[in-house]
Design a protein that fits this description.
462 residues; mainly beta; 4-stranded antiparallel beta sheet; globular
């Protein structure tokens, strides 16, 4: 088999290669030959299912069948069947290798297909690592430079890992106390020099990362519901069920001002330019302040608000309330877009380019809308409620996190699933790294998973 050119002309069914399609198998090692078989199976699956990405069970079965066909035609060594079965015995999603096919009757079609494959992100099962905790992992967060990933857990520990070396570099461990035993949120500052850690019924603590020295605390009298750094990292804001939001200067480490509501403050957000602050509350009010503490706008709604954020251009606000998602125009105060789910909406977000919004609901569906046209693009379905959805920084992908123990990644352009991550417990949160090279999930199974993403097939096989 080594160092020879094998021209395979496959006369298969309509669900396989066309009879004029040719594939060259010219490789010097067993692993290279296995890769060629790999891509042949990928193409077979694509024609059978319409997908470029298949799960490992589909891949394994198709591989076994396909190698047997190859064996009948060219008497391929049976060891490749064994190698292939071993490779896909792991419970992982496969990654893609560029398909080297030449259809002389339809070169343009092949070229277009290869371009589509190259644009799809790919995942290498070898490039996965896991962060383990002794209890639920509530959140997972990448640093802005995408070099580190941080978790928060009910075991009262936050861990920071280097994503390249896959090793733990920092750990924040807190003394267990009654009513304070959950670290439910941990975030990096935009410059990566500081982290904020929030725990149940405990002060929010801000640390210098290099020294792990605590710089200051922010005190509330009830549960913390949200923490946010400003885009420039100069300010930090907290929200609480004590009906207040507090804004602190990172430089002076002192409170600048606080915002009061009549009920729980459910979320706090900075505008994209960092000039304004948005608070949302169960008291049905949206408040916008500048950084001097001046109330700029107050919007009275008819419903309790679970979450709210500015649109990237700062002209609108998207909110989650009960079973509905609403978009308000700030200037007019009017609702310009309204979406209804069949259950409570848990997550709503704008894409960074401002063209799309995503919603996640207890009705087991997540949706992606074109916010300009106000049209549904596609819906993602799970078998249990969906906790969150997030966009990639380039606005090309969206990822879910569901109680059905999976996270799904969809291509927005192609409106199709390209990857799925599995846990043994509910997936509570998910995130893309800013550079688009990694995805991470946090789960009730006590682990966070980090997966490497490749931007093209060429990159995947380097």
């Amino acid at each position: 088999m080594k160092n020879i050119l094998i021209l395979v002309i496959l006369f298969l069914s309509a669900a396989s290669f066309s009879k004029n399609q040719c594939v060259d198998l010219f490789r010097s090692t067993d692993s290279e030959i296995l890769k060629i078989i790999d891509v042949l199976v990928n193409e077979r699956l694509r024609l059978d299912t319409g997908y470029y990405v298949a799960d490992s069970s589909q891949k394994k079965q198709a591989g076994e069948n396909f190698i047997r066909i190859l064996n009948d035609i060219i008497k391929i060594d049976s060891k490749y069947l064994t190698l292939f079965k071993e490779k896909y015995s792991q419970k992982n999603i496969d990654y893609k290798i560029r398909l080297k096919t030449e259809n002389v009757e339809n070169r343009n079609e092949n070229k277009k297909r290869n371009q589509i494959i190259d644009q799809t992100k790919h995942f290498d099962p070898k490039e996965i690592f896991q962060i383990e905790h002794g209890d639920y992992v509530n959140t997972v967060e990448f640093s802005a430079d995408s070099k580190y990933v941080m978790t928060s857990s009910n075991d009262n520990i936050s861990k920071i890992y280097d994503v390249i070396s896959k090793k733990e570099v920092f750990k924040f461990e807190f003394v267990r106390r009654a009513g304070m035993n959950a670290t439910y949120a941990a975030k990096f500052s935009p410059d990566g020099k500081h982290v904020v850690i929030a725990r149940w019924r405990a002060p929010v603590e801000i640390y210098e990362l290099a020294t792990q020295k605590m710089l200051f605390k922010i005190n509330h009298t009830d549960l913390i519901t949200a923490v946010e750094f400003s885009p420039d990292g100069k300010y930090i804001m907290t929200a609480s069920e004590d009906s207040t939001a507090k804004i602190y200067s990172m430089l002076s480490k002192k409170k600048m001002f606080q915002i009061k509501h009549k009920n729980d403050v459910s979320s706090v957000k900075f505008s994209t330019d960092g000039k304004y602050i948005l608070t949302a509350s169960i008291d049905k009010l949206l408040k916008i302040y500048d950084l001097k503490g001046n109330l700029i706008k107050q919007l009275q709604t008819d419903f309790s608000i679970n979450y709210a954020e500015f649109s990237p251009d700062g002209k609108n606000i998207i909110i989650a309330s009960g079973n509905e998602t609403k978009i308000f125009n700030i200037r007019s105060g009017q609702i310009v877009f309204n979406i209804e789910h069949g259950g409570p909406v848990n997550s709503v977000h704008y894409s960074s380019n401002g063209k799309f919004i995503t919603t996640a609901s207890n009705d087991k569906s997540a949706r992606v809308y074109d916010v300009i046209k106000k049209e549904l693009i596609f819906e993602i379905n799970h078998s249990a409620s969906i906790n969150t959805t997030v966009f990639s920084s380039d606005s090309e992908y969206v990822m879910t996190a569901s109680h059905d123990k999976t996270a799904k990644i969809y291509s927005i352009d192609r409106a199709m699933e390209v990857y799925q991550i599995e846990h043994s417990g509910s997936v509570l949160s998910s995130q893309f790294s800013a550079d688009g090279n990694y995805v991470a999930t946090a789960s009730r199974d006590g682990t966070a998973q980090v997966h490497k993403m490749y931007h093209s097939i060429k990159e995947a096989v380097k």
